[in-house]
């Protein structure tokens, strides 16, 4: 059959759109929510957390702004810190901090995947594996650190603390990306 | 890791401090040797928090380095005739740039058009037409008259007249009025009022007017998609996606120290864990990935929709946690269903696949898969191009669609020249619909010589003619009406490959040529080899490519593109000229060939639209050119691309028979 060239039937190209992926955004939002709930012990922490959560949601689902979403996560984390400063039990804090960092990574990945691939692409597998990795690292580290903390009886001479943590700070500074 | 001196000091100091700390924990008495108080700890804490904020700042100002990927689904950006006029107008009115040059250009163009229109309508000399144009009696519209009068005065006296915002607005208003007036005067059926007003045009988003020749490359951060090997690394980079994570650690640690909250210190420790995670730079072994591409049809015809399935197999590459792949579909193709992309993770031995449907175009293609492999944390990205063994050859089939009216210029093969004084019906074939199952007939030359009779084709033409299908393939001919329409060269080649078949089957000697700096010349001939060569030429010759010529290919245009064609064209050849007629050169070519004694039929796909003022202007210009050519006795088939070519030919047939 010869090709009839009339474009009354033109081939329409499929739509291509870019922005943070839905799945990644959902993971980030859930993690952020967990962090906020865990820091709800103190009022200040709760307020900051809610504020940050709104920013995160807006950045992910309304405006598609990486900056805004990252800022939201930062504020959520600050809320966790604020709660920690006010005083709360260690488990809540660690889990809250962990959730905030997971939210951070999920946000970044959502934007990255959405820009490099498209919103129409099937991405759930790749994103799930990445998120699982991030959570696993956090949990393993938390368990490890907690074990040491509990084993040591929870008491350190200030000097020991100074050296250990001071040394850690130096090292972090050295290896920061 | 260790680079600058500062880093080395930090690492050294850190390890030293840690060692000391461990010693103090192990031997608690040592603590007395260091008379540090709580104050120092708090100070350290605050320092840590500050350092954390520095990292945050780094994050805000830092850049993420990841490969910018192309959007191969989208068709390339090809301009619509009139985009340049819209752009000039917009530059003048919105951007306030290039006011004088654009004004001059637009004015010149309008004047030329006005003169052409008046000449055609009133049948006078160019000079008289110019006078009438300036006199202004041809239109009742004040603004239109003012446009021509005022601007020409300004041009003559050399005064720059458009200083000040008001004058630019006036210019635009008068310009639009002038276009509208010309439309009315030329009696073109078009509702100029329906065109968006001034406000509309300034709100319109900028459209690219430059022809994108290599769309995938321009759109992405990869230099070239032409690869010679099945696997080629483009780059391996740190993405900095985790940039700033150390801020979490530092701020938490610092706060923990400052208020002596162990919980916060633990959070800081978790942050440290992530900082280390982010620094791991294991490179994914994507070179061991096996990619296969399956084409539903490896030899389709142009315009067909083909389903493509790509399969990724992890064959000994270890765990690939983050694979982002994009099939870099060639520019000329359009993806009509599915998505040529996938994001997945493959453990050793696993596989994944994705498929999409693509509308193909003529040519030979072998395209790569863009593979972005990352490690689990996402801190390292390896960009590579993997080309599976799956070539596609898309060649038109040259089937008979309908009969094509051939004019009365014949070859010497017949011996006897058919004259114009012959009766009606001498020149033309009858037009009949293509019927599925019609046998493709060849001319039996011996029988023709003996009896003058054709066996199966309803054939009223006495003698065979020599025909050349001539294409306008300059960069300016790559224009299209809208985002979803094919461009003029594609339309022309599609139509011509069908016409070639019809002409060939009717026994005419048919050849192909194109005028552009990329010359194309295929002399008229006959025989099955000739036909096969023609088929391949339509698919593969660079001049007839569905992609516009690269800017690099264009040489300085001192050489007239028609030179090589003119040199070889034999005097008795008929020409079918395919051109969108969006500039004067192509019309000039038609005129000159006609004066040179060739019979010319112009087949012009109408790629003009009428949504903006620039488009209307080019529409009027084109219509005027067509009328002018017809006045000179040159046949022009104004092919409104909504209709099929067969229909247009039928209509034209009637028109030409009575002419």
Describe the structure.
Chain A has 177 residues and is mostly helical. Chain A is built from six helices and no strands. In chain A, helix 1 (22-38) runs parallel beside helix 3, helix 1 (22-38) packs antiparallel against helix 4 and helix 3 (66-86) runs antiparallel to helix 4. Chain A is elongated and about 70 Å long. Chain B is an alpha+beta fold. Chain B is built from 18 helices and 17 strands. Chain B has helices spanning 5-26, 38-61, 83-95, 99-122, 126-135, 142-157, 165-185, 198-203, 215-219, 245-259, 262-279, 445-451, 488-505, 528-540, 563-568, 584-595, 613-631, 645-658, and strands spanning 231-238, 289-295, 305-314, 320-327, 334-338, 341-346, 351-359, 363-365, 369-374, 380-386, 392-394, 466-472, 509-515, 520-525, 574-578, 600-606, 635-640. In chain B, helix 16 links the parallel strand 15 and strand 16. The longest helix of chain B is centred in the N-terminal third of the chain and has 24 residues, at 38-61. Residues 198-212, 410-448 and 452-461 of chain B have low confidence and may be disordered. The interface between A and B is large, with 89 and 131 residues.
Element layout with pairings:
The complex is a heterodimer of chains A (177) and B (659).
Chain A: H1 22-38, H2 43-62, H3 66-86, H4 90-116, H5 124-151, H6 158-175
Helix pairs in contact in A: 1-2, 1-3, 1-4, 2-3, 3-4, 4-5
Chain B: H1 5-26, H2 38-61, H3 83-95, H4 99-122, H5 126-135, H6 142-157, H7 165-185, H8 198-203, H9 215-219, E1 231-238, H10 245-259, H11 262-279, E2 289-295, E3 305-314, E4 320-327, E5 334-338, E6 341-346, E7 351-359, E8 363-365, E9 369-374, E10 380-386, E11 392-394, H12 445-451, E12 466-472, H13 488-505, E13 509-515, E14 520-525, H14 528-540, H15 563-568, E15 574-578, H16 584-595, E16 600-606, H17 613-631, E17 635-640, H18 645-658
Parallel strand pairs in B: 12-13, 12-15, 15-16, 16-17
Antiparallel strand pairs in B: 1-10, 2-3, 3-7, 4-6, 4-9, 5-7, 8-11, 9-10, 13-14
Helix pairs in contact in B: 2-10, 3-4, 3-17, 4-5, 4-6, 4-7, 4-17, 6-7, 7-17, 10-11, 13-14
């Amino acid at each position: 059959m010869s090709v009839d060239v009339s474009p009354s039937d033109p081939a329409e190209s499929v739509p291509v759109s870019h922005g943070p992926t839905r799945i990644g955004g959902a993971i980030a939002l859930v993690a952020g929510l967990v962090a906020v709930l865990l820091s709800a012990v103190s009022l200040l922490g709760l307020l900051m957390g809610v504020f940050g959560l709104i920013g995160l949601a807006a950045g992910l689902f309304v405006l598609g702004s990486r900056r805004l979403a990252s800022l939201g996560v930062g504020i959520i984390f600050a809320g966790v810190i604020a709660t920690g400063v006010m005083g709360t039990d260690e488990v809540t804090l660690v889990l809250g901090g962990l959730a905030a960092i997971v939210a951070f990574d999920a946000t970044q990945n959502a934007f990255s995947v959405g820009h490099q691939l498209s919103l129409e692409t099937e991405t759930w597998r790749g994103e799930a594996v990445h998120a699982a990795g991030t959570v696993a690292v956090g949990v393993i580290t938390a368990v490890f650190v907690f074990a040491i903390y509990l084993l040591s009886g929870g008491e350190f001479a200030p000097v020991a603390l100074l050296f250990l943590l001071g040394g850690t700070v130096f090292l972090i500074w050295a290896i920061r990306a | 890791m260790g680079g600058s001196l500062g880093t080395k000091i930090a690492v050294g100091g850190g390890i030293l401090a840690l060692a000391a700390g461990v010693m103090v924990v192990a031997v608690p008495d040592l603590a007395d040797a260091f008379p540090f108080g709580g104050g120092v700890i708090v100070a350290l804490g605050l320092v840590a928090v500050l350092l954390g904020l520095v990292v945050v700042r780094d994050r805000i100002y830092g850049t993420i380095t990841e490969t910018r990927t192309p959007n191969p689904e989208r068709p390339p950006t090809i301009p619509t005739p009139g985009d340049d006029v819209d752009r000039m107008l917009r530059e003048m009115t919105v951007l306030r740039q290039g006011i004088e040059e654009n004004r001059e250009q637009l004015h010149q163009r309008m004047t030329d058009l006005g003169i052409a229109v008046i000449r055609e309508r009133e049948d006078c000399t160019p000079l008289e037409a110019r006078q009438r144009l300036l006199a202004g009696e041809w239109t009742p519209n004040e603004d239109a008259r003012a446009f021509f009068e005022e601007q020409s005065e300004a041009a003559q006296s050399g005064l720059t007249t458009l200083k000040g915002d008001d004058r630019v607005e006036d210019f635009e208003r008068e310009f639009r009025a002038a276009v509208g007036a010309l439309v009315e005067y030329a009696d073109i059926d078009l509702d100029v009022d329906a065109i968006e007003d001034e406000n509309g045009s300034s709100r319109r988003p900028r459209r690219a007017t430059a022809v994108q020749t290599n769309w995938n490359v321009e759109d992405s951060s990869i230099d070239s998609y032409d690869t010679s090997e099945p696997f080629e690394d483009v780059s391996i980079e740190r993405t900095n996606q985790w940039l700033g994570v150390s801020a979490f650690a530092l701020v938490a640690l610092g706060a923990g120290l400052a208020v002596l909250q162990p919980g916060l210190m633990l959070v800081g420790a978790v942050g440290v864990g992530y900082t280390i995670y982010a620094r791991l730079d294991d490179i994914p072994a994507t070179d061991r990935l096996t990619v296969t591409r399956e084409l539903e049809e490896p030899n389709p015809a142009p315009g067909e929709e083909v389903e493509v399935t790509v399969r990724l197999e992890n064959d000994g590459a270890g765990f690939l946690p983050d694979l982002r792949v994009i099939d870099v579909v060639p520019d000329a193709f359009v993806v009509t269903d599915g998505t040529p992309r996938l994001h997945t993770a493959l453990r050793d031995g696993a596989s994944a696949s994705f498929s999409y449907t693509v509308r193909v175009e003529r040519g030979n293609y072998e395209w790569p898969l863009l593979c972005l492999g990352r490690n689990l944390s996402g801190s390292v990205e390896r960009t590579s191009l993997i080309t599976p063994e799956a070539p596609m050859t898309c060649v038109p089939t040259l089937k008979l669609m309908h009969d094509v009216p051939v004019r009365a210029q014949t070859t010497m093969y017949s011996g006897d020249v058919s004259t114009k004084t012959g009766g009606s019906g001498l020149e033309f074939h009858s037009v009949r619909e293509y019927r599925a199952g019609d046998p493709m007939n060849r001319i039996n030359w011996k029988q023709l010589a003996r009896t003058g009779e054709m066996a199966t084709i309803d054939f009223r033409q006495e003698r065979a003619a020599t025909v050349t299908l001539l294409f306008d393939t300059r960069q300016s001919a790559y224009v299209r009406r809208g985002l979803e329409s094919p461009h003029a060269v594609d339309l022309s080649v599609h139509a011509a490959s069908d016409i070639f078949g019809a002409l060939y089957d009717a026994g005419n000697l048919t050849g192909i040529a194109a005028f552009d700096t990329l010359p194309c010349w295929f002399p008229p001939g006959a025989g099955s080899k000739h036909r096969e060569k023609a088929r391949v030429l339509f698919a593969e010759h660079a001049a007839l490519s569905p992609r516009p010529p690269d800017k690099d290919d264009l040489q300085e245009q001192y050489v007239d593109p028609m030179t090589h064609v003119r040199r070889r064209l034999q005097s008795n050849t008929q020409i079918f000229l395919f051109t969108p007629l969006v500039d004067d050169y192509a019309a000039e070519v038609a005129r000159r060939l006609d004066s040179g004694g060739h019979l010319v039929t112009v087949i012009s796909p109408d790629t003009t639209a009428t949504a903006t003022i620039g488009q209307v202007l080019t529409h009027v210009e084109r219509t005027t050119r067509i009328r002018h050519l017809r006045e000179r006795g040159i046949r022009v088939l104004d092919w409104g691309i909504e209709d099929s070519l067969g229909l247009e030919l039928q209509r034209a047939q009637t028109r030409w028979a009575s002419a």
